[in-house]
Amino acid sequence: MDYTATQSGFRQRKLQPNMRLRTSLVDGSEGSQLFEDTSGAASGPQTGNQQAGPQAAGFPGQSILSDPMSNLAMAYGSSLASQGREMVDKNLDRFIPISKLKYYFAVDTVYVGKKLGLLVFPYMHENWEVSYQQDTPVAPRFDVNAPDLYIPAMGFITYILVAGLALGTQNKFSPELLGVQASSAFVWLIMEVLAVLLSLYLVTVNTDLTTIDLLAFSGYKYVGMIVGVVAGLLFGRPAYYLSLLWCCVAIFVFMIRTLRLKLLSEAAAEGRLVRGAKNQLRMYLTMSIAAAQPIFMYWLTYHLIR
Amino acid sequence: MAFTLYSLIQAAILCVNAVAVLHEERFLSKIGWGVDQTVGGFGDEPGVKVQLMNLVRSVRTVMRVPLIAVNAVCIVLLLLFG
């Protein structure tokens, strides 16, 4: 009787620090994970409770942890760990703006489907403006015109895998080649973004395009490249050229319609003919950014289809 | 063309070095790119050439000291590892 009482007492006392530790770990990981679970499912607390159950059941064998000194040590250790985590987060946030990056990954399946359709067939879409909500742009989940980084990131990875597949059909594959393709495409991407930034600075365009926006826009061409290469692998060279041509024209139109609203002045964006050297320069800039996309698309894929 | 990140870094260092060696009074003023020639209008139309001259001047001012360090590191690494 006495023994069971102390054992159940021990178990109760054990359960509480474990619950505290477990919930603090769950909360800490929710705060520090890079991309919060924006799907809206409240699965956090339930998994926390389930995990605390088996944890407490495993503990009765360890009696050294029953004394208050080690409870204290455990509580202190967990508070130190959470402090360290906060410090790392704060310092990391200074170099890479993680909070800003979260906005670009707040997508859902409907948005991705619509955006992919828009990248391949932009001709029917009427309204290209990004909607705002009290001065901040609306998250991509709610507005199909907003730029995101999910499609470019996935497209880049898929492009590398498809390039490996295509090189394999030419019997040129080796694992190092994947790394070479990846770094080569990444370097071209960085150079393109730097060139666009430089030309935006030189032309003194007052725009709210951030660097990450430009990265997103430059990453949208990977979708067309993948479509072209896959068509070429399945149906041969004529299919590659046809689908690449289609995707090039689609990306050209997409970029012009998107950038027109961001780079040009109000009057020119509405289609009225506006004279003046500055507007002409901006128009040339928009045209050249859009024209660079098909060039890169061909450059990065022609060696894959032989 | 198989570019790597290392070749991008090399190209960046070479370009910044090239911008840093443009001497202000011996060269830039002679070809009309000196900073005393940037006084344009006070409107909102700086123009491409003025922007470029400002960019060259600011790169030279900002990157002077870091370039010393980066070049020294490059020289040592190239001597050691070829």
Automatic annotation (TrEMBL), chain B:
Main location: membrane
InterPro entries: Yos1
Keyword list, A-Z: Membrane, Protein transport, Signal, Transmembrane, Transmembrane helix, Transport
GO term, biological process aspect, one: protein transport
Recorded GO CC terms: COPII-coated ER to Golgi transport vesicle; endoplasmic reticulum membrane; Golgi membrane
Lineage: Eukaryota, Metazoa, Chordata, Craniata, Vertebrata
Subcellular location: Membrane
Range of residues in the leader sequence: 1-18
Function field: Regulator of endoplasmic reticulum secretion that acts as a key determinant of brain size. Required for secretion of extracellular matrix proteins. Required for correct brain development by depositing sufficient extracellular matrix proteins for tissue integrity and the proliferation of neural progenitors. Acts as a regulator of the unfolded protein response (UPR).
Source superkingdom: Eukaryota
Family under the similarity heading: Belongs to the YOS1 family.
Identification of the protein by name: Immediate early response 3-interacting protein 1
TM helices/strands, residue ranges: 62-81
Pfam families for the chain: Yos1
